[in-house]
Every structure is written in structure tokens, then in C-alpha cells.
Amino acid sequence: MFGWLRKSFTRPASTTAAHGADPDAATQAQAKARSQSAQHKSLGDQCLNAGAEEQAANHYRAAIAIEPGFAEAHCRLGDALRSQGEHVQAAACYRKALTFAPDLVDAHYGLGVTLLERSDSRNATVYFRNALARDPDLVKAHTALGFALLELGERSAAQACFQTTLRLDPDNGMAQHLTASMTGGNPDRAPRQYVEKLFDGFANHFDATLQQLHYDTPKKLSALIAQCRPDAAGDWAVLDLGCGTGLVGQELAPFSGQLVGVDLSGKMLEKARARNVYQRLLHGDLIGIMQEEEAARYDLIVAADTLIYLGKLDDVAREAQRLLVDGGLFAFSVEALEALPGAPPGASPPADYQLQPAPSCRYAHASDYIYRLATENHLGVRHRALAHLRNSVGTSVRGYLVVMEKRSADQAA
Ligand SMILES: C[S@@+](CC[C@H](N)C(=O)[O-])C[C@H]1O[C@@H](n2cnc3c(N)ncnc32)[C@H](O)[C@@H]1O
Q: How far apart are the CA of 380 and the centre of ligand 1, in A?
């Protein structure tokens, strides 16, 4: 798209100097250098698409070494560095790209995202608007601008951006979910695309951020499981739903002979793989994956901070019951509908679950619903307590830590 820009790039000085007396030779050398830099750029793109960011960065650097004014290579190097969480260097690459090609839309967009990820929402809006001034149909820039405006508290402007996103791309899960959360909607679940994009973008700084937010649900659930089964022998088959970067796997490794992790985000799964505690890691939606597993296969199913992206939990509870052995445990956390700010004390919530307004966009569940799911699926509630789950925007998010046990057919009868 921006191939024409490269025509004005700085030529490698060495080629013209070495062939100064022979214009044909100089032209040939330049063409060869261009073809080599284009090859590195294309290899970089392939690596980046395959998630090999470091290799991609090396190819982009090689392209730039041959052709220093190759704006697209600078921009893609910015993308590769941003994916690795190197925001300062990424921003420098985008700025460099813009010095060579001031209209390079991807560089404006990339710089906007980098600033947004560094919580500089105000400046991020400038670059998203720059990108949109050059390409008004750039869907991702409308969505990102909406995010930045939301961060700045400009809710109606943000909502307008998500509506534009939906007009251009009606199936956009990100905008669907954000719009629902800003208009009091209560769909059954967050769209897959929303979860995937959110956590792909979060994977590099997930562990550090969650530590800052005092998140220790994996530890708390693990302690409850140990309380329920003091005789655990370390040979359990364990299914970790929404395993993320593997914080739960790390806690549960001492209980498990076989640990299986499931997640919608490929980038989170890469982090989990690097921990080397899972025997199997499955990429996909947890409900679909549970439906494909054999019955009575697991001693323990865990979902820490995962079911907050689903409203309706009937399918999950039914599948958990089917997949557990008799006496097997289903341990999970959910945010408590009764503990939301403004919830009337002591009153039962009017719904089983509620999507919370942006920027949370997570679900909170009612205690009665949790008990009903247990009863309907022949699961006994071994533990259910209100606890601090993590901080969010300076307040404590409170939720239920639950351990259910599968009753044998005799007990269930
Ligand atoms: C807040 S993180 C928690 C990760 C991990 N359980 C922990 O405690 O550190 C939620 C994870 O659930 C995953 N997730 C959410 N909904 C999912 C779904 N329907 N299917 C599979 N994974 C899902 C997300 O991709 C994300 O990695």
C-alpha cells in the first residue's frame, strides 16, 4: 500500500560511492540492496505472524541496515518490539518510520497503541485520529480511539467510536461487548474475539500487572483444594480452564500427574507453555473443548478468574459434572453480584449474572445462581466464601471462591 513511499528512501551510501563512475552498476547495486531489504522485511512479517517476535525484529533490523530509510521496516520493528513489551523502543521505531513516511497509517496507529499501553491515553488519541484522517475506514483505529476515550472518561465519544466500528464491521466482538457494557446490555457471554484480543494484548505484562493488583486467587483456590482433600497424592488429572500464563498450573503442579490447560488467547498459552508444568495446552473456547473431552476424566477442574468472561454458566457446570470422576472437585472464582458498589445490602439480585459497565466489562454472578447450578448438576458445595479477589481502580474487587464436589450416582439419587 505504501510501496511508493520507498521510492524516496535514502540510498545506501556505499553502493553509489563504490559505483560512482558506472551508473548502471550503481543502479544494479541499489536494486539488489532493495530486493535484499524487501526479503528481510517479508521474512520479518512471516515471523511476526507466527509469533516469533525476536526473529522478526532481527529481520527488520537487517532490512534497515541495508536500507536505513525503509519506513515500513521501522514500523514493523515497532510492532515486533511492542509485542515483546518494549514500549519505549517501539515508540522510537514508529517515530522514526514517520520521519521517513509522515503518512504511514500503521505507524500512527502503532504509536497510538504504544502510548495507550503506557497509559498515555491523551496522546494516544492524537495518533489514532492521525491514522483515521488518512484512512477513515481503519476499524481497529476507531476501536482503539474508543478505548483511549473511555480511559479519559469521555464515555459518549467512546461509545460513538464503538458504534462506528460496528457500522464498518458488524461482527466485531470487541465493539459488540464494549457497546453492550456501556448500554446496560447483558449478553450470555463475552465474544471470543473480545477475550482473545484482550488477553493477547495483555500477555506480556499480565503477571506483573496482576501482582500489582494483589491477585492471589490461584494460591487461595489451591489452599481450599488442599483443605478439601488433605490426602491428595500428587497424581490427579487436572483441567485448568482459562489457564492464562499458567499461574494456576504453577500452584497445582504438586497435586497433578497430568495438567491440561485451555485458553482462548494464543499469547497467554505461549507464556503458560514456557512454565513447563502443563502436559497438554489446548487453544480454544473452554466450553467447546470440555464438550470434546471424555467423561469422568478429571479429578479436579479449576477456573480462576475465568468465568468472569461468561455470564451464563449452565453449560460449564454441566460439562464439569460430566468430566469429573465421582468425588472430583470443581474449584472456581466469580465476581459477586451482591458485592458490587451500590448493590442493596441483603437483597437478592434480580438476575443470575450481570455484565458490568465499561471499563470492567466483566460479569458478576449471584450467589443463588451458583447454588442452583450445583443443585441442578448434582454437585455438592464444599466451600463458598466471599473474598477479596484483586484490586481494580483503587478498590477491592470481591467475589466468591467456590469448591464443588461431584456426588456419586448413589448420592445424587
Ligand atoms: C484473568 S485471566 C486468568 C488466568 C489464570 N486463570 C490466572 O488465574 O492467572 C482469564 C483467562 O481466561 C481466558 N478465557 C476467558 N474466557 C475464556 C473462554 N471462554 N475459553 C477459554 N479461555 C477463556 C482468557 O483468555 C484469560 O487467559
A: 25
